[in-house]
Design a protein that fits this description.
Blueprint: E1 3-4, H1 7-12, E2 13-20, E3 24-31, E4 42-44, E5 48-55, E6 57-61, E7 64-68, E8 72-76, E9 81-85, E10 92-99, H2 101-109, E11 127-129, H3 132-146, H4 155-176, H5 188-204, H6 212-218, H7 223-234, H8 238-255, H9 261-267, H10 273-284, H11 288-293, H12 297-305
Length: 309
């Protein structure tokens, strides 16, 4: 939900920012309103997508209404005016996702090229299905964002994952509305060339804090289109590819008895020794220190080969 509210409403509706970048803003909201009557008029201040995690609310446009619950995604169009009521007595909680307008239009253009005729009003519907896979991905995305204090946040992961979640929600909504996606054709050669250029960019900057918009700009693509092309060409998201580069590059250095693990972690772009250890353990099943104790050339080759994509 993203709306202008009066002073009394602010006591019932609270927001907490989970992630904010030039490409996407993600906010957790909690509404404790249990009133069955229609609220005063509210106005959406941005084009946003709301995914529910608890409860339900109804949004009223004149004589029409749309009910939002955990089975649906709800779309708020900028400057739209509506009233809200709550059919139950438990309030509601969910996640508001605001994608930067140029990127949002890039996503929708792949599904409906006519968005260029209404660039400021990209949603032709007020609700769409929240399919099981999307529901669980949304919950996992929020869970990881909420663990920022315990686990370093990787902006590349947060941007790519959030944009792909928004894109999949929109595609499901377009299909549900009866509008068939009208994806524009693009050459495989062009996609392959951009993916290879991105691989080169990442290999040269393996230890840097790379962002999605930087890589996309380097291969002359918009952030969302680049992320989609890269995954199609490589079979994995760009943040996963970079993590693989870093982990595989670490194996030979970790195996050296006198190499400092903290230096290896920082050189390869991890935020700390503990961050490196956590990621290494998740992928290889043991810590860098344990790996060093048990190292053999055969082990190094097998671990690199078996790294889960």
């Amino acid at each position: 939900m993203a709306a202008k509210a009066d002073k009394n409403d602010l006591e019932l509706l609270t927001f907490r920012t989970l992630y904010d970048s030039p490409m996407i803003a993600v906010r957790d909201y909690v509404c404790s309103d249990t009133g069955h009557d229609h609220s005063p008029e509210e106005e959406s201040i941005s084009n946003s997508i709301t995914l529910m995690r608890h409860g339900a609310f109804s949004r009223h446009f004149g004589s029409q209404s749309v009910t939002a619950d955990v089975n649906q995604a709800t779309f708020f169009s900028k400057d739209s005016v509506y009233r809200v009521s709550h059919p139950g007595d438990c309030g509601d909680r969910g996640t508001s996702i605001v994608v930067a307008q140029p990127i949002l239009n890039d996503i929708i253009r792949e599904l409906d090229p006519t968005v260029d005729e209404r660039p400021d009003q990209p949603f032709p519907f007020a609700a769409g299905p929240c399919e099981p896979a999307i529901f669980w991905r949304h919950r996992e995305y929020v869970r990881r964002l909420e663990r920022i204090s315990a686990e370093p946040l990787e902006p590349l992961w947060a941007d790519v994952t959030g944009l792909q979640l928004a894109a999949d929600v929109l595609e499901a909504a377009f299909q549900h509305s009866g509008a068939k996606p009208k994806k524009r054709a693009a050459t495989s050669a062009d996609h392959a060339e951009r993916a290879e250029a991105a691989k080169t960019y990442l290999a040269v900057r393996i230890g840097e804090n790379v962002t999605l918009d930087e890589v996309a700009a380097a291969v002359f693509s918009s952030p969302f289109n680049f992320a989609r092309i890269f995954q199609q060409q490589t079979g994995m998201p760009v943040h996963r590819y970079l993590t693989q580069l870093r982990l595989r590059a670490s194996l030979e250095r970790v195996a050296e008895a006198n190499a400092d693990l903290t230096s290896i972690a920082i050189d390869l772009g991890f935020s700390s020794h503990s961050h490196f250890t956590d990621v290494f353990r998740r992928e290889f099943g043991e810590t860098p220190s344990d790996f060093r104790k048990n190292r053999t050339n055969k082990t190094i080759r097998e671990m690199s080969k078996n790294l889960i994509a």
